[in-house]
Automatic annotation (TrEMBL):
<feature type="domain" description="Proline dehydrogenase">
    <location>
        <begin position="45"/>
        <end position="301"/>
    </location>
</feature>
<keyword id="KW-0642">Proline metabolism</keyword>
<keyword id="KW-0547">Nucleotide-binding</keyword>
<dbReference type="Pfam" id="PF01619">
    <property type="entry name" value="Pro_dh"/>
</dbReference>
<keyword id="KW-0560">Oxidoreductase</keyword>
<dbReference type="InterPro" id="IPR002872">
    <property type="entry name" value="Proline_DH_dom"/>
</dbReference>
<dbReference type="InterPro" id="IPR029041">
    <property type="entry name" value="FAD-linked_oxidoreductase-like"/>
</dbReference>
<dbReference type="InterPro" id="IPR008219">
    <property type="entry name" value="PRODH_bac_arc"/>
</dbReference>
<keyword id="KW-0274">FAD</keyword>
<dbReference type="InterPro" id="IPR015659">
    <property type="entry name" value="Proline_oxidase"/>
</dbReference>
<protein>
    <recommendedName>
        <fullName>proline dehydrogenase</fullName>
        <ecNumber>1.5.5.2</ecNumber>
    </recommendedName>
</protein>
<keyword id="KW-0285">Flavoprotein</keyword>
<comment type="pathway">
    <text>Amino-acid degradation; L-proline degradation into L-glutamate; L-glutamate from L-proline: step 1/2.</text>
</comment>
Amino acid sequence: MLGPVILAASRSDRMRRLISAAPVTKQVVDRFIPGEGVDDIVPVVRDLADRGLELTMDVVGEDITNPAQAAAARDAYLELIDRLKPLELGTRAEMSVKLSMFGQALEDGHELALKNVRPVVEAAAEIGTTVTLDAEDHTTLDSMFAIHEELRKDFPGTGCVIQAYLFRTEADARRLAANGSRVRLVKGAYKEPASVAYQDKHEIDRAYVRILGTLMEGTGYPMIGSHDPRLIAIGQELAHRAGRKLDEYEFQMLYGIRGDEQTRLAAEGHRMRVYTAYGTDWYGYFMRRLAEKPANLRFFARSMLTKG
């Protein structure tokens, strides 16, 4: 299994330096991360929106070690929201945030992360859009869900992410589906121990279908985060069985992966949201994309061999 090896490499400074220095890396990274600054990303937003696609924007970053860095992450999102305002896209362009970037792992991190993320959620609401709290490793989730619940008191559209490979997620899904939350379901992209997570791909897929069924039958808004054609088809069937209209759920895929399928789903009238990341600290995000899907790793390796 290469996935765990790649995830370990995502935290290796030596591998970071090696991969970052490779001549072909930027060309390959650009497939998944279309820019380093907000000036790069605004034209991408316009292009995707003009093609009938929706977006969730992620300012990538890793390893926040002090409150000043957490504040800088907050300010980067506030700048993004300010630049999105003239586009008047409303919920067609939302934000995704990792609470670790807002200081969650620091001393008094729960309170610090809530303090830093609240202005972002407020600013998003002012331009008619929302924020989704990304899920990270299992040790952070109780804090993430507590912050999600707190933010929803004033901003009920605030979303969160749940991960099918964790044993706890079926119970989390039942709770979230009952209280009307916006929930993105993904398989999971962090290295988790067998004590808390399924390790077998087929077990993860089965859990994904069970959890998605719970979300579709609930009162919330399910967001199907998958590139798997079979799970996409199952999602459509579950939505049909639950009597959901096309605007009562959505699909989400990563920028740079299955672009033709994204366009097809949008053309059929589905809400199709593209997870679009940008920023200079792209390494951890990039490595998790390689770990998630063998085809991504093959693409990178082939490019290294033919272009390096």
